[in-house]
Amino acid sequence: MKVYDVLYKRAENDGVGIWAKCGVMLEKDNGKQSLKFDVLPVSSEWDGWLVVSARKPKDYDGDGRVELGVEEEPPF
Predict the structure, then answer these.
(1) Helical ranges in the chain per DSSP H
(2) Is residue 7 a contact partner of residue 21, using CB atoms and an 8 Å limit?
(3) What pTM value is reported for the model?
């Protein structure tokens, strides 16, 4: 399973976007994708765009997969 971060641009500083994570996208080996949102931006300044970005892993479990940090399997 591949894990991607879902991000939105909170602000800009000197032309560089400041991004915040609002959820994850999970891609199973069979190609099916699921989104899980932790928060949804509701600011009037938010332009409505979300970005799916390859996760920059902090920890590996030894075989190259990223640990999700959850106790149970995703419900799909």
Answers:
(1) none
(2) yes
(3) 0.69
